[in-house]
Write a structure and sequence with these properties.
alpha/beta; three-stranded antiparallel sheet; globular
């Protein structure tokens, strides 16, 4: 199981929110590159970089930070937040993203998202399936759609999607543990999916459990910044998992 730390950006700073609520913003570092280098220094290979300004503005905003991290570390970055047009995608990939995550666009403009899948391939495009009470949320989680989570994922698997990041919004940033039952349910109903768990990770011992369920990756945010899980622990996990 891949360990994927998260850096969320607002105004160029590394922040965390609770349940996607912008009013709960807490700044952890004013220099995202510094954090990314710390991750890299502990054997971490992957980074989930979220442009929260972009999610609100509905177009890419913090691409310079993406470019800085991509050019000054070897981290494989998946980038999301506000990617709405072919131009947004071009900028993200040119600035060094290995993968992009599309959430709202996959709900609101299905033809565009399907075209991206076709043009860039399933290894480059991740479906962002973020949900509250198993209903998909959009627009930086500011609104709920009519899409039910499981049928939504299943429909895109038929269209060729491989990678899905699923965040249970009720858990995100709350440090109360991830949605084990939800991930188990998704993996049982949608086999062969590369499911990336996101939201709620609060302690190191949750990671082997997510791996056991069959999650392909796990995104960890606040638990790192609040020192609930140390980078040394993650380094040990990665080494033991790769043996």
């Amino acid at each position: 199981m891949r360990i994927i730390p998260a850096i969320d950006i607002i105004d160029g700073h590394c922040v965390r929110l609770s349940k996607g609520d912008y009013s709960t913003k807490k700044i952890y570092n004013e220099n995202p590159l510094e954090i990314a280098k710390q991750f890299e220094g502990h054997g971490i290979e992957y980074l989930h970089l979220v442009d929260l300004d972009g999610a609100k503005s509905k177009h890419i905003v913090n691409h310079k930070i993406l470019e800085q991290i991509a050019s000054k570390t070897s981290l494989k970055i998946d980038f999301g937040g506000g990617l709405k047009t072919d131009e947004d995608l071009r900028i993200a990939f040119e600035c060094g993203a290995r993968q992009i995550t599309g959430g709202s666009i996959a709900v609101k403009e299905k033809e565009t998202f399907a075209k991206w899948l076709h043009v860039y391939g399933t290894d480059k495009i991740i479906l962002g399936a973020d949900a509250l009470h198993e209903k998909v949320a959009v627009s930086g989680w500011q609104e709920e759609s009519n899409e039910k989570l499981l049928p939504f994922i299943q429909s895109y698997q038929k269209a060729g999607i491989s990678y899905v990041i699923c965040t249970d919004i009720s858990k995100d940033g709350m440090l109360k543990g991830p949605s084990f039952d939800l991930y188990q349910k998704i993996i049982a109903k949608v086999p062969d999916l590369k499911l990336i768990a996101s939201g709620g990770v609060s302690a190191f011992d949750e990671l082997p459990r997510l791996a056991e369920i069959g999650c392909e990756g796990t995104i960890i945010g606040k638990a790192i910044y609040e020192n609930r899980i140390s980078l040394k622990q993650l380094e040990t996990f990665i080494v033991s998992y790769n043996e």
